[in-house]
Design a protein that fits this description.
There is one protein chain. This protein is mostly helical. 73% of the residues lie in helices and 2% in strands. It has eleven helices and two strands. The chain has helices spanning 2-33, 40-57, 62-92, 99-120, 144-166, 168-178, 180-185, 190-212, 224-237, 242-259, 268-282; strands at 134-136, 141-143. It has a two-stranded antiparallel ribbon. The protein is globular. The model has no long low-confidence stretch (mean pLDDT 87).
Length: 293
């Protein structure tokens, strides 16, 4: 029994890395722009399609495929704010918020999913593992593919938090998230920061999609389940709180995997929302959120 618990705990940590990578991007976008990006799952799918085209169709290395997926998603993300959000923001005359921007990203989600369907078709596409083989731990074995996912996700998150805390543009992003009016008063270009923050969040989603492509089939709606889970994680961690999203990702992933030992697997997807409801009843602002948020 102990061996099974340790085995599922390891799987939960790996899954938590992917949840964290995906949810941190969603949380970053909301924390800076006050926009709920419903299209986040489509950028996850785009990352999967790019890595499929790079590795399977062009026969390039998985490293180049991962780099292409992350870079391609980032470049697409750079276009979202100036082409879609900024024009609507100017018409409203206020910071991006409210149901109109929710509808806007929902429309973007539908557009991207339809575009992927038109270009790639509705077939399920397979990407070969980036790393083959298993690591034998004695009591269990873990695939090198899952360990690679955890390692890359960890490095990406460390790089993100380092950028936000030590780079000038990263500190500007944090300043805008805290108080956009004060940040603008000291000379920070809000439009540039909004664009950068959204592109970084989208790039994390594309990277997550590329990393998970060898474990899942790639198809237009592959990111939908992750988006729903990410909403629960974002709320649970505290709206707009990156550290909270990171903590909530591992809490939900570990509890989900361990729950298989005691409840049927078909109930696994309910766990995230059950945990979210339970914790919010005790702490309405989330794990690390501020009470006044």
């Amino acid at each position: 029994m102990l061996e099974s618990i340790v085995e599922f705990l390891i799987l939960g940590i790996v899954l938590g890395g992917i949840y964290a990578l995906f949810s941190t991007g969603l949380t970053l976008i909301f924390g800076v722009l006050d926009v709920i990006n419903v299209a986040h799952g489509e950028f996850f799918a785009i990352g999967g399609y790019i890595v499929f085209a790079t590795v399977v169709l062009l026969h390039l290395s998985p490293a180049l495929g991962l780099l292409a997926a992350t870079t391609g998603s980032f470049l697409l993300g750079l276009a979202v704010y100036p082409l879609l959000i900024a024009p609507l923001k100017r018409r409203l005359g206020r910071r991006p918020q409210g149901p109109l921007f929710l509808v806007l990203t929902l429309g973007l989600s539908t557009f991207l999913q339809s575009t992927l369907l038109a270009i790639g078709g509705g077939d399920y596409l397979r990407v070969p593992p980036f790393a083959r083989g298993m690591l034998d731990l004695g009591f269990t074995a873990v695939s090198y593919q899952r360990l690679l996912i955890l390692a890359v996700a960890t490095l990406a998150l460390v790089a993100l938090f380092t950028f936000l805390h030590f780079h000038r543009q990263g500190m500007a992003i944090r300043a805008v998230a805290l108080n956009p009016d004060a940040a603008q008063a000291v000379g920070i270009n809000l439009g540039m920061i909004f664009t950068l923050a959204l592109a970084l969040g989208v790039a994390l989603a594309g990277m997550a999609g590329a990393l998970m492509a060898p474990l899942f089939n790639v198809y237009p709606a592959v990111g939908f389940a992750f988006t729903i889970k990410a909403f629960a994680i974002t709320i649970l961690g505290g709206l707009g709180n990156l550290a909270g999203a990171l903590l909530a990702s591992f809490v939900i992933a570990i509890v989900e995997t361990l729950s298989v030992l005691v409840i049927p697997s078909q109930w696994q997807n309910v766990i995230a929302f059950a945990i979210m409801i339970l914790i919010l009843l005790i702490r309405p602002q989330g794990l690390l959120g501020r009470a006044d948020r």
